[in-house]
Structures are given as C-alpha cells and as structure tokens.
Write a structure and sequence with these properties.
Blueprint (H helix, E strand, L loop, with lengths): L3 E6 L4 E8 L3 E9 L1 H5 L6 H23 L8 E7 L3 H18 L3 E5 H7 L1 H4 L7 E6 L4 E8 L2 E7 L5 H11 L6 H9 L24 H16 L6 H26 L4 E5 L6 H14 L2 E3 L3 H4 L4 H12 L21
Helix pairs in contact: 2-3, 4-12, 6-7, 6-8, 6-9, 7-9, 9-10
The structure holds 5'-O-[(R)-(carboxyoxy)(hydroxy)phosphoryl]adenosine and zinc ion.
5'-O-[(R)-(carboxyoxy)(hydroxy)phosphoryl]adenosine binds next to helix 6 and helix 7.
C-alpha cells in the first residue's frame, strides 16, 4: 500500500504545497514565489512574507491536492515545515497544517526545513540511499551534514559567519546585480575569468569542515573600493567569476574531504546554491577523481519547495513521528533536532 503525504512549506518567501507518494514520487508540486515582491526591498521582508503566505496558503494547498489526482481520503498524513525559518512565515504553514489535520482527522508530522533540502536528493535518484554526505548551502544555511540514515542527521561542518547564498547575494549587490544575487552571479561568471583576481579561500585549522565567507566578502568589497579610489574600471564578470570560484573551491574541498573521512562513497548537494552550474560541474569533476558518486537535485527541488518536505515527512511518518495540535513554529530548529 502506498503512502501519500500532503506537504506544506512556508518558512521564507515561497508558499508551497505538494503531494508525494512513498517519499519518492512527486504527484504535485505547487510553488507561489513572492520573490518579485521582496526584490523591491533588496531582500526578504518578514512581515510582507507572512501576510502573503496567509493570502496564498489555502489556494496553493487546494491546487496541490487537485493536481495530485488524489482525493482527501487517499492522503495519509500532513507534513509541514516547523523550522528553521522566519517565525511569522512558519506559523502560517503550521496553522494551516494543523487545521487540515484536525478537520480531516489526519496525522500531523512536523519537518525540519534543512532536512527537507537534503532529502530533495531522493526525488530524482531512486537508488540513492544513506549513508551519504550532503553539502547544504542556501541563503540562510551552509552545513556539511552526515546523513547516517533516512532520519538521522549529524552536522559535520558549518559556516562561522555568512551562509554561502548570503555571500552571493551581498557580492551581487555590491557589483550592482540586484537580488537574488546567486543566479545573476552564476550567469555573469560564465563571461569572466575565475583566475583574474586572487580572492582568499578560508580553511579552518581547528575545524577542517567549517567554512567562513565574511573574509572573502570583505576582500571583494576592498577590491571594489580600491578600484574606485584609483578610478580604475573593474571587470564585473571577472569579479563574479573569481568570487564564485573562491566559494566553490572551499565548498568542494571540505565536502570531498568530509565524505572520505566519514567513509561515505556518496556526496550530495542541496539548497538554493546547489543550483549553481559551476559548483555542480566542479563538484562532479572532483568527486569523479575521488571515486565518489555525486548527486544534486534539479533546480526546482533546490529552491524552497514542498515536495522535499513531503519526502522528509514520509521518512519521519514511517519512523513513527507524530506531532500534536500543539505543534509550534521553531525558528532556530537545529539539524537533527527532534521536538
Ligand atoms: O534554499 P533557498 O532557496 O532559500 C533558503 O532557504 O535560504 O536559497 C536561496 C539562496 C539565495 O541566497 C540565492 O542567491 C542562492 O540560494 N542561489 C544561488 C543560485 N540560485 C540561488 N547561488 C548561487 N548560484 C545559483 N545559481
Ligand atoms: Zn531553504
């Protein structure tokens, strides 16, 4: 018998719902992105995000159920992101999920957003099984996670300061590309020389799998200021390509080393930054050299979506996880933390 999960995601600026069967088959995946709304302000405005979620959540859920081709009776459980994320935004999804669970008498399963990003890898790779190492890089998080089992996650490395996506967004703003910066740097970097400017790569001696991007970000800003003071016109594409390569080198070196040290033969990527075309290509090449299998989700499953919550929710559900109607949003929920 198949298990169908209705999943809801509202942790940041995407209102999303999906129906996923047996943790692998996506029957529907509806995403309402608020990105245009927040672009005006150069970043996500939490209050606006919450209001928009309230406006859209019912419609998105309805579409996900109707597009799945299933009836409400076929839905076995409701999975919802309860953290980490913006508290007001999370609360909208959590409240909607609780209302449906109550009204339709379905079990409720709270899901960790970051674990969802990691589990997105399962959707298009039916043979992928833990254990594996996963580099999760998004706008708010950069973590190296050892996925021991379908619902056992251990943080192996983390950023000391900025998340990788945050660094992309800040550098993009500094060279006038606008928000969100990741995709714009990705595109412009293709026209630049990644070796044009020697930006620093930070490796931590005391914690070999940790990251730091604030020094790199300052180095880029200093370079831009220096050019301005000397009235030299800098090449934007070279800045984008050289900055991007510095991020890619550190993410890849640490991930490959962690995978080998933990005895994994699989490395995966997840989160918004996993859409980066040069990062994917570089990691694929380095994994091949190191004898590691390499997987990443398609773009649609890298950005925030509810299908990934349906996958993680399925593995929680079959493991017996159930939440009561007192489930609350936990804005700082940790990876691997169960509440
Ligand atoms: O996972 P995500 O959609 O949202 C969070 O949970 O944060 O990640 C968004 C982040 C943004 O910082 C965005 O600039 C970055 O992912 N991003 C990229 C690319 N596409 C999105 N960074 C680098 N290259 C890309 N192609
Ligand atoms: Zn995310």
């Amino acid at each position: 018998m198949s298990i169908n999960i209705l999943a809801i995601e509202s942790s940041c600026d995407e209102t999303a719902a999906a129906v996923v069967t047996d943790g692998r088959v996506v029957r529907s995946n509806v995403i309402y992105s608020q990105i245009d709304l927040h672009t005006l302000y150069g970043g996500v405005v939490p209050e606006i995000a919450s209001r928009k979620h309230v406006e859209k959540v019912n419609q998105v859920i309805k579409s996900a159920v109707s597009e799945s081709g299933l009836d409400w009776e076929d839905i076995d459980a409701i999975a919802v992101t309860y953290g980490p994320g913006l508290v007001g935004a999370l609360l909208v999804g959590v409240s909607a999920a609780k209302a449906i669970a109550y009204a339709k008498k379905k079990p409720l399963v709270g899901v960790n957003h970051i674990e969802g990003h990691i589990m997105a890898n399962m959707i298009e790779h039916p043979d992928l099984k833990p254990p594996f190492m996963c580099m999760v890089a998004s706008g708010g998080h950069s973590h190296l996670v050892y996925v021991k089992n379908y619902n056992e996650f251990e943080i192996v490395g983390r950023t000391r300061d900025d998340a990788a996506g945050e660094a992309f967004d800040k550098v993009a703003r500094a060279i006038g590309l606008g928000y969100p910066g990741g995709p714009k740097i990705d595109k412009l970097a293709k026209e630049g020389n990644p070796e044009a400017i020697a930006f620093p790569r930070a490796y931590m001696e005391d914690a070999p799998y940790d990251f730091s991007f604030s020094g790199l970000k300052s180095a880029v800003l200093n370079y831009l200021n220096g050019c301005e003071m000397k009235h030299i016109e800098y090449n934007k594409a070279d800045v984008a390509a050289s900055f991007q390569q510095a991020v890619i080198d550190v993410l890849t070196d640490n991930s490959v080393r962690a995978a080998k040290d933990y005895g994994c033969n699989i490395l995966t990527l997840a989160g918004g930054v996993a859409s980066n075309t040069s990062l994917r290509a570089h990691m694929a090449k380095c994994c091949e050299k190191a004898g590691l299998a390499f997987f990443h989700p398609s773009g649609i499953y890298c950005t925030d979506n509810a299908a990934m919550i349906g996958v993680a929710g399925y593995y929680e559900y079959i493991n017996g996880t159930r939440h009561g109607l007192d489930l609350n949003a936990v804005p700082n929920l940790k990876i691997g933390e169960k509440r």
